[in-house]
Specification:
The chain is of the alpha+beta class. The chain contains 9 helices and 15 strands. A 7-stranded mixed beta sheet has the order 1-2-3-13-5-15-4, with helices on one face. Strands 12-6-14 form a 3-stranded antiparallel beta sheet. Strand 1 and strand 2 form a beta hairpin. The longest helix is centred in the C-terminal third of the chain and has 15 residues.
């Protein structure tokens, strides 16, 4: 089956059609879908007809699926641990109005890369729309491969040997959550190269976004200035585009070659039901694991840092 691919930007993003992704796919079609992702970084499938089960089944062609944390026990919200909640509805289907939860979600409106704060990186995210607000709520994407390609040679030479520390709590602090540097220091982080080779395309890409807190071995002020400079560079108009959602749309993005951010909408007025599967980079684990629940459990069970004079 031949995919129909309509590029969004010359080097980045495409709308894809010509295949029924609700049904089992032959191996040649599966390879073509993955190759299309490797080339374009973001693929938009409109009016898919996917449900929870077929969303999960389709996602598995990309690799091992992460499990969403289930901190309260009991059945998962959507009946499957593979589905992460990216909406604004509680377990009873009512709009969430808890100010703590709403503040935490504000971090999603910063340019970020899903789960870069985890030692095991997330490769692909597949987000399916069930309900969308009538205005606002677009998702923006940025091309970190082309952004790297276009950097001056001197900047490439400067950043290629560097590593960075990534923290979920840092991006939440940037978005306004009341966290201190000391609290973030006491919580988990992950270290990743600032530049890496994207395995599917062989192209180099920046791996930097809102979770990126510090450059290893660099003064914090200098390192954070460099992080801001690279994010601003990679989010110039020639590298970005928005997706306006309709129910049934599926957008797949490659976290190892993109950044993204959510657009604003009136989240206390409009309903948004979005469900995401997340594919881990590399081979499946030898034993079942639950790294996101471990991250949150370790944070919640850790005593607060001692007060400083």
């Amino acid at each position: 089956m031949m995919l129909k691919v309509n590029p969004i930007l010359p080097r980045f993003g495409a709308e894809v059609s010509g295949v029924d992704i609700t049904r089992p796919l032959d191996e040649a079609t599966r390879r073509e879908i993955v190759a299309t992702m490797d080339r374009w970084g973001v693929c938009v499938y409109r009016n898919t007809g996917l449900d929870n089960e077929s969303h999960i089944a389709f996602s598995r062609i990309f690799g091992h699926l992460e499990r969403a944390p289930n901190m309260r026990g009991g059945p998962p919200k959507f009946g499957h641990r593979e589905l992460f909640d990216a909406g604004n509805l509680d377990a009873d289907g009512q709009i969430i109005r808890d100010p703590v939860v709403l503040q935490h979600k504000m971090g999603d409106r910063l340019w970020h890369t899903d789960s870069s704060f985890m030692p095991l990186r997330s490769a692909y995210s597949l987000l399916l729309a069930y309900e969308v607000p009538p205005e606002g709520g677009m998702t923006w994407f940025a091309d970190t491969r082309s952004a790297y390609d276009d950097l001056p040679a001197a900047m490439k030479a400067r950043i290629e040997p560097l590593e960075a520390e990534h923290s979920l709590w840092w991006s939440r602090m940037l978005a306004g959550s009341p966290l201190s540097e000391e609290e973030i220091d006491a919580r988990s982080s992950a270290r990743h190269p600032l530049v890496h080779v994207h395995a599917g395309s062989g192209r180099k890409a920046l791996y930097v976004a809102a979770h990126t807190r510090d450059i290893v071995g660099m003064d914090r002020v200098e390192g954070r200035a460099l992080i801001r400079e690279l994010i601003e560079w990679a989010t110039q108009p020639q590298y970005i585009f928005p997706v306006k959602w309709q129910p049934g749309d599926l957008v797949i993005w490659d976290n190892l070659s993109t950044m993204h951010r959510g657009g604003g909408y009136d989240e206390t007025r409009y309903r948004r039901d979005m469900r995401r599967t997340t594919v881990r980079e590399g081979e499946p684990p030898a034993e079942p694991d639950d790294p996101f629940a471990d991250l949150l459990n370790n944070t919640l069970n850790r005593p607060a840092p001692a007060a400083t004079a």
